[in-house]
Amino acid sequence: MSLTTRFTEAIGIEHPIVQGGMMWVGRAELAGAVSEAGGLGIITALTQPTPADLVKEVERARRLTDKPIGVNLTILPSINPPPYDEYRRAIVDAGVTIVETAGSSPEPHMEMFREHGIKVIHKCTSVRHALKAEKLGVTAVSIDGFECAGHPGEDDVPGLVLIPAAADALSIPFIASGGFGDGRGLAAALALGADGVNMGSRFMCTVESPISQTVKERIVEASELDTNLIFRSLRNTARVAKNAVSDEVVEILAAGGQFPDVQPLVAGARGRKVFEDGDLDAGIWTVGLVQGLIRDIPNAGEVVRRIVADAEAVLRAKLALFGEPAVAPVG
After folding, report:
1. Stated pTM of the model
2. Helix, strand, coil % in the chain, rounded to nearest 5
3. Which of 138, 72, 63, 66 is nearest to 102 (CA)?
4. Phi, psi (5° rounding) for residue 206?
5. Alpha carbon 262 to chain centroid, angstroms
6. Which residues partner with 198 through β-bridges?
7. Is a pLDDT exceeding 90 seen at residue 1?
8. Domain locations in the chain?
9. Does residue 331 carry a pLDDT above 80?
10. Which of 7, 27, 138, 147 makes an SS bond possible with 196, Cβ 3.0 to 4.6 Å?
11. CA nearest 88: which of 114, 61, 124?
12. Alpha carbon 44 to chain centroid distance?
């Protein structure tokens, strides 16, 4: 069974389920498993230390599946920015046909991607940014609600409002991100007008996810209350796991501190140690509110298959409320 939407048809996959690009998490094993199950697995470009390593990582993923695999390219302001042009060239050289862009506008990259037939999914946090991406010619948009891990933007609009608002405004396919982790979520996203879902935290907590088992078990144990919003006063809000470090960051900034006062606490190298060593208080690490719905650590392919089956069951059950006759299976 496949679940066909405008997004699956545009991207060329079986099911409208995307594994979001996550720093230190989006590697070949996870991306390959998601794609092999019919979703879209995504390798995170900047997790790889060099553009050449990215090409090798894509090759590793292709040994796991012959189905489409995407690459995430997150563009953010930095004192020492990565060589984005070189990573973009590596994406082309690796023969990648789907790219998820995030952070800043994808405009500087669109010409090359368009020339090489690469489909772009741009991730954003507001309808106005989604409309700008549509004008730039992206194939689809991934729109992040306030529930998401990482940067939810500064509008604080949750998915229940953001998704139908996007559906009313956009002409291109779009997927919903932030707060999705099971079949109920996929069914709800489709009912609200989205063409699929993007999931990060749910795929972090799978067998193929390359992070410490301790972190995965913490996600299972945690509730939807166990996150912190940091950098609020700096208007660069990020949702991260609640731990000793993020509690301290919130406290310092609430007392009037500025970024230099917390910079040593939020260094990316410290967050990477959490994922690699399993020390939950080594640094800040991102996870979404949906962790309150995550209760196991299955294979990534099982997650895809389970969500599709459960979404179908939910939608059929709701149709029955109207006395509708049974319908043929989707796909």
Report:
1. 0.94
2. 45, 15, 40
3. 72
4. -135, 165
5. 26
6. 18, 177
7. no
8. 6-199+302-320, 213-289
9. no
10. 7
11. 114
12. 10
